[in-house]
Amino acid sequence: MGITLTDVAAERVNQFLENRGKGVGLRLGVKTTGCSGMAYVIEFVDEIASEDSVFEDKGVKVIVDPKSLVYIDGTELDYTREGLNEGFKFNNPNVKDSCGCGESFTV
Q1: Higher model confidence: residue 51 or residue 94?
Q2: pLDDT category, 32, cuts 50, 70, 90?
Q3: 52 exposed, middle or buried (CB, 10 Å; 0-12, 13-18, 19+)?
Q4: Cβ-count burial of 5 within 10 angstroms (0-12 exposed, 13-18 middle, 19+ buried)?
Q5: Which of 25, 86, 94, 97 allows an S-S link to 61, with CB 3.0 to 4.6 Å?
Q6: Is the dihedral of CA 14, 19, 21, 22 positive or negative?
Q7: Which SS3 state, helix, strand or coil, does residue 75 take?
Q8: Which helix (H) or strand (E) holds 11?
Q9: Residue 85 forms beta bridges with which residues?
């Protein structure tokens, strides 16, 4: 299935990479934490590892390690603004439940 981005998310990632001045894309992953079990991790990538999966959507390379891909395959990354808050939002079809604070999830 892969990883996709909304137009707004792709534009924001490109702005971040441009302001940073380097990087080949954005790494998405998961880590074990929180009340529900897992949380998303986002970081810039300067080098792609041989075991990484690379998805390109709207001109943005999204890099995912094999362990994380199982949990986030099919996810759409969005960027939202609600009042004074703004940030990336994960539309992940694999999520079965999430904690009340919205920081962690389970599949």
Answers
A1: 51
A2: confident
A3: middle
A4: buried
A5: 25
A6: negative
A7: coil
A8: helix 7-20
A9: 82
How far apart are the two ends of the chain, measured CA to CA in Å?
A: 17
Amino acid at 19: N
Enter the tokens of residue 90.
Answer: 């994960």
CA distances from 3 to 12, 34, 81, 85 (A): 16, 23, 21, 24
15 pLDDT above the threshold of 80: yes
Nearest to 105 by CA among 38, 41, 45: 38
What mean pLDDT is reported for the chain? 86
CA dist 5 → 12, 90, 95, 106 (Å) = 10, 10, 18, 22
Residue 91 pLDDT > 90, yes or no? no
Mean pLDDT in residue range 54-72: 93
Q: Which two tokens stand for residue 22?
A: 């380097």
Buried residues in 33-45 as b, exposed as e (16+ CB within 10 A): ebebbbbbeeeeb
